[in-house]
């Protein structure tokens, strides 16, 4: 074996600020790269503002988004309070979306590779697997909901022989069949790759918005106009009872998209420019979620006026339609909405995350298949049995943990590195982001402290959740209602502070080329900012 440094001219800096690997760059010997994790070429970065806007319309218009808004009405809010909560939550979460999306657009890299800069080449597996496990839960929830949509609406068309079929495991066997069919349909689509995801979002988004408007018009006719839908009073008022519900609900709204705020670079890496991802996300996320939330709370309020109770599941509501054509239309909308969201939000991310775990063994499609299998094994139907468990326990806890990761990534990329990365070093052993054995202990410490503070006080109302009534750590219970903000701010500050107090060794350690051909990295020894990815100034 002989020591050999990596080439010095591995990257190309383009006039618009984006960075790509040079045509002659060779990462083929690294065990930390495959074709799916490798930076995209400039020719592959072709998504426009419309593509990103349509992506967010496709992801935001879905049954869980609907039930999220309707669930707030079921918890006692009126339509104004529910829409305010959702709009504010999505404006807040837009900021980390755009900030982390910048790295994807600039360097053409997916989330787990981006995370290597902060956590280390090996350490990035921690946030990647956390995000991947969360996506498995979401994929299971969405698939179960899609299967329910097929089951209920098909039963409305066929009759009792379908909806009252013999039970298996507590559910009619036709429900399990619907679940399996919907699962298999998604597997078939994702096997076509990311271009199929983009095309699906582009033409499905307008159709799904139309479906929501049709449901609103139908409910308005049932309720006798918009008046009864807007007149349902708040059971909480604007006093202390409202604020007790508002803050944990707000954290739930943020937690709803906390997964995408981490791995949005899985999509922005395809962006044709920074403006495309910035404008597309700003136009797509807060506006669509707010408009869709308004539709949801109006229809849910209307169902309360018509049926005497709020029906926050649109599938159950659509099943009450008298028109066969209306039911068929509702079935198509349910399928399109759930498929477009589930594939984009809950399969793309973990596919890259699992690929990052073992790049030589797991590619994008294999990672997606693993996600599909794992998602069935977590019994996702248990997570959405009630609004309190769905919004507070599931979204709040998950959001708190992912908030710590977002804080670390943003502090590292923007505060410490000023958005400058050494692109080739993200794939090389012994280079700038190798730290100690591939792990950045400062990021691990910030994650541990932020995570404990964010979810250590998690609590449940007696009999309504898995946590003790006084919190896992009673002293931290007051922080539980602000889990995402606590995790984000704590990890952001601590990661930055630890790097200032204990700066990592910026001199890469040369590694020999092994029998397997893994290239070493001894680039940039002569300049103290060699990890920046920018030419010395």
Automatic annotation (TrEMBL):
One of its GO terms (molecular function) is nucleobase transmembrane transporter activity. GO terms for cellular component: plasma membrane. It is found in: Membrane. The keyword Transmembrane applies. CDD domains: SLC-NCS1sbd_YbbW-like. Keywords: Membrane, Transmembrane, Transmembrane helix. Gene3D superfamilies: Hydantoin permease. It is a multi-pass membrane protein. Residues 1-26, 508-537 are annotated as: Disordered. The keyword Transmembrane helix applies. The chain crosses the membrane at residues 54-75, 82-105, 173-192, 204-222, 242-262, 283-307, 327-349, 361-379, 391-416, 443-462, 482-502. It comes from the Bacteria. Belongs to the purine-cytosine permease (2.A.39) family. This is NCS1 family nucleobase:cation symporter-1. It comes from Nocardiopsis mwathae.
